[in-house]
Prior knowledge:
Blueprint: E1 9-13, H1 21-33, E2 44-48, H2 50-59, H3 65-77, H4 89-104, H5 120-129, H6 133-140, E3 146-153, E4 159-165, E5 172-174, E6 177-181, H7 186-192, E7 202-204, E8 207-211, H8 221-225, E9 230-234, H9 256-268, H10 270-287, H11 291-296, E10 305-309, H12 315-321, H13 328-333, H14 345-351, H15 355-371, H16 373-379
Parallel strand pairs: 1-2, 1-9, 2-3, 4-6, 9-10
Antiparallel strand pairs: 3-4, 3-8, 5-6, 7-8
Amino acid sequence: MHKLDVKKTGLILSGGGARAAYQVGVLKAIHRILPKGHYNPFDVISGTSAGAINGVALASYAENYRIGIKHLERIWMHFSCDQIYRTDFLGVSNGLMRMMRSLIIGRRFKNDPVSLLDNKPLRDLLNEAIKFDQIQSGIDNGALHAIAVNCSGLESGESVAFFQGHYSITNWQRHRRIGKRTRITLDHLMASSAIPMIFPAVKLHGEYYADGAVRQLAPVSPALHLGAEKIMVIGVSGIAHKRKDQKKESIAYPSPAKVMGHMLNAAFLDSMETDVERLRRINRTLERIPEEIRQSEGMELRQIELLEINPSRSIDQIAGEHAAEVPKALKMALGGSGNTSQNGSGILSYLLFSQGFCKALIDLGFNDAMERADEIRDFFSDHFKE
């Protein structure tokens, strides 16, 4: 069956800093599960924050998907924190001093960035690792329909999906959600992954943008606007969000790392879980409404096939197991000994770009997806019918 004869498949990669290594493991498993010699299985890719980095890397290899997966895995397997942000005492101390000065006496210059960490090493790494010019080639040759990088406008308060795709796709506008056609560049990736107060915002098209997970009310929406008719969501929340029984009374006030981790979870995880739940509810409702009634009433809603894959273990717990890999300067900035598996692993899971932690998440993602191999084959079955 030709690719034009099947439903357009969307891939949604949520944000989460170092947590996004899990997505690489899932994608590696999909590469293993699907038949050899197949084309890129994802027509539409929508990524946020570190998920945008993974998504754009895949899009740049849309014409050679398998090589793209191997390239992505190679990058993550050899990560170290100093490839993402400055980990030396001088670099971290400068960031702390800038933040304190800004809070107490204001910024020296109006364009001075205010952030805890300097992520220039990430810019250098992405500039070398991702071939942005190959994205348009994949679109022109039909290997990719569209790629979106989601950012948050700090002035407008809008969630903006910057997209590059087929000429038939038009800009869209909803309440605090818009889609803008552009050519995806390094600046878009840096803006999408600019976790507020941790990494500096980036100026794009006359406005400063930060991490796309902030104020992202409908993470599934961009992929649907870009033409996806069924979607796969690779999340990074895992079982950590499930309610736990309170076994003992907390006797210590939460550390700064604990509070920051809680805030990041709210920004990165909650909106995706809510939007996926909303999509499932819409699907269940539409199942009960006959097609002829939907057409006669002019209902524009349609059922969207969904496959969601999330970690089977708490990523916070895994981060706590790798706490010894935290750079000393970063540990100092986050509260020293307070940053443990019990009191601060939430923020660790976003910033711990170490080989040990990333490998553990890649292995977890691979194993989780392989456990659901039959579901994955069924999801892509229409791609391989004769």
